[in-house]
Write a structure and sequence with these properties.
Elements: E1 3-8, H1 12-22, E2 27-33, H2 37-47, E3 50-52, H3 55-59, E4 66-69, H4 77-85, E5 89-92, H5 100-113, E6 117-119, H6 127-137, E7 144-152, H7 157-161, H8 176-192, E8 195-203, E9 215-222, E10 227-233, E11 243-248, E12 251-256, E13 259-265, H9 270-278, H10 298-313, H11 321-340, E14 344-345, H12 352-358
Parallel strand pairs: 1-2, 1-4, 2-3, 4-5, 5-6, 7-10
Antiparallel strand pairs: 7-11, 8-9, 8-14, 9-10, 11-12, 12-13
Length: about 375
């Protein structure tokens, strides 16, 4: 039996979603929709699916069981809520949305409808990320002391000028942090656990005609007592692969895109040297550091497969709505600190029921 996917929003990232679905046995893109009819027609021709010019028509199609939302970041909530009401499972391109109120509305709609909601964070599915997470769960780092994320990328002015929504608070929701570094923020929280407080600076230094930051630096205090730094930029030419550093009093690991550049522990195992050799040169693309199209779709495919597994088993996917919300919350706290010039404590005000659910507590 084939699971039918419908793509909502037919811009650049929709092509990666279509490739990911095509690589999954028993899955197929059967429909697409865009507010600009020509965009839907073009993707439909490329993929070999039906183009819809009205969202309600796509959501009424019984062949569509799962929708993937590829609209601008600040336009995720409306189609997600509509899809939930139509009984469709939902995969949302990062970020979940750009405000906690909108994120909470999406999570609530999916909960009420009994459908799966997942946010795209494919970096979690890379083998190197999985190995690092396992080592953390095994306590190999000892007491966690530092956790850092560095996303020093470059985007041209033409990139921001290419879409009226880019670089706006209303639809991009932020700049280098919300659009580009959100993947690394998610990974950092997945590895280190929740943040308790942030103190930050942001600036717009190298681009014109954008409302948002192209440089950001934040100091983070995690709930477990560890400290860290988040650096994000789209103004650092020529752009470097993103880097995550995890340190404890018994081990250190540095993730450079998909490569494990550092893998050292006070108590070595037989597998460690093999991991160092095999995971030192995993990255096959530019990682989006200078070109947003220079990414692979393998992580998307693995995440889509995880979502389908959750649907089939009636369980939650690795990255559900509350999980996707966490990175948005931390980024919003960073923006608030930069704006006020004061440290900001987390969690931020929001739906207490959803916060409890995000922490795994019973309601």
């Amino acid at each position: 039996m084939t699971v039918g996917f419908g793509i909502i929003g037919c811009g650049m990232i929709s092509r990666f979603h279509a490739k990911a679905v095509a690589d999954i046995r028993g899955a197929k893109v059967v429909a697409c929709y865009d507010a600009v009819p020509a965009a839907a027609d073009k993707l439909a021709e490329e993929v070999g699916c039906k183009a819809y010019h009205e969202l309600d028509a796509l959501l009424a199609d019984p062949a569509v069981e799962v929708v993937t939302i590829c609209t601008p970041s600040g336009a995720h909530m409306e189609p997600a809520v509509a899809a939930a009401k139509a009984g469709k499972h939902i995969i949302v391109e990062k970020p979940l949305d750009i405000t906690l109120k909108r994120c909470d509305a999406m999570i609530a709609a999916a909960e009420k409808a009994g459908v799966v909601l997942s946010t795209i964070f494919p970096s979690r599915f890379h083998q190197s990320s999985q190995l690092l997470k396992k080592a953390l769960e095994q306590g190999r780092f000892g007491r966690l002391t530092m956790g850092d994320a560095y996303v020093k990328w470059y985007r041209t002015q033409e990139y921001y000028d290419s879409g009226a929504w880019r670089g706006t608070w209303a639809l991009d929701g932020g700049g280098a942090l919300m659009n580009q570094a959100v993947h690394s923020v998610d990974l950092l929280l997945w590895f280190m656990g929740p943040a308790a407080e942030v103190c930050a600076y942001t600036a717009t230094l190298a681009h014109e005609r954008i409302e948002v930051e192209d440089v950001a630096v934040a100091a983070v205090k995690f709930a477990n007592g560890a400290l860290g730094v988040i650096e994000a930029s789209t103004a650092t030419w020529p752009g470097e692969l993103k880097r995550i550093e995890i340190h404890g009093d018994a081990g250190s690991a540095v993730l450079r895109e998909e490569d494990l550049a550092v893998w050292k522990f006070a108590k070595e195992t037989k597998a460690d040297e093999k991991i160092r050799q095999e995971m030192a040169s995993r990255t096959q693309t530019g990682g989006g550091a200078a070109d947003p199209k220079a990414i692979g779709h393998h992580g998307h495919m693995l995440q889509f497969r995880d979502v389908l597994n959750a649907i089939n088993k009636g369980t939650r996917p690795l990255i559900d709505g509350p999980e996707g919300r966490r990175a948005v919350e931390l980024i919003l706290a960073i923006y608030k600190s930069a704006e006020t010039g004061k440290p900001v404590k987390l969690p931020l005000p929001g739906d207490p029921a959803l916060k409890a659910r995000a922490k795994g507590k019973k309601l």
